[in-house]
Every structure is written in structure tokens, then in C-alpha cells.
Amino acid sequence: xxKSMFTLxxxxxxxxxxxxxxxxxxxxxxxxxxxxxxxxxxxxEQEFDGDIEAIASMKQRSLAGDNTFTVGNLPEGDYxxxxxHDKNSNGELDSNFVGMPTEPxxxxxxxxxTMGPPVWSDVKFSLSGKATQIIxxx
Length: 138
Hints:
The chain is α+β, with helices and mostly antiparallel strands and about 140 residues long. It contains 3 helices and 8 strands; from the N terminus they run αββαββββαββ.
């Protein structure tokens, strides 16, 4: 009985990893304190493409200068994120008549696309332990 209980406990522990990784995102040189900085954490290409809901999203009031988010308790793995400075607090990334963003935005790894958003392979990074990404908004 003791041996089988020990085996059960070990099996449960191995089935549910307990690693708690921490991601810090520093957004450099935000130009104004208007509105909010919005961060969306993505754990897969399907989340990046919008096919399924993102693992986490958060917002905080904008500060002129540097803004920092710290996200803990993430499982080890591949992630990406997107950021926007919602200057007018309407909850959307505003764009002009041809679809170009008119509010500052950014992606993990400071990835940018050509004539559109970057691809998942440019945005994703491996998170193991603690990681910090320093992002400059476009």
C-alpha cells in the first residue's frame, strides 16, 4: 500500500509540472501618459493567429518613459507577446484608412513584419526560469 501510494504521488507530480517561470517586459520610451499599455501573452501560433484565446492579457495605465510588466507562474515553454499603447483608451489598436496602425505597437523579440505583422517564428521565444525582454514600440 505504501509503495503504490508513493508511485501515485510521483506519477501525479510528473504529470503536472510545477515550474513557475517569470517574464518581465520593459517597454522603453513610451511617449505619453495618455491611455493604457496593453500586453497580450501568447503560448502558441494558434493564439498568435487569433484562432484561440490568448493565455493572458493585461493592461496598466501608461507612464511617460519606461513601463514594466512582470508575469509570473507561467509554465516553461514557448511564448510570444504583443503590446499596444492605447492612447485614447478605446481598447483597440487604431489604424488609418489603409490599415496602418496610428498608435504605438510592438511584439516580443522586437519583431516587425514586412507589409503587415510579423510571423510567429519571429515573435516566439523560449521561457525557462526568469527572462526579460526590452521592447521599443513602433
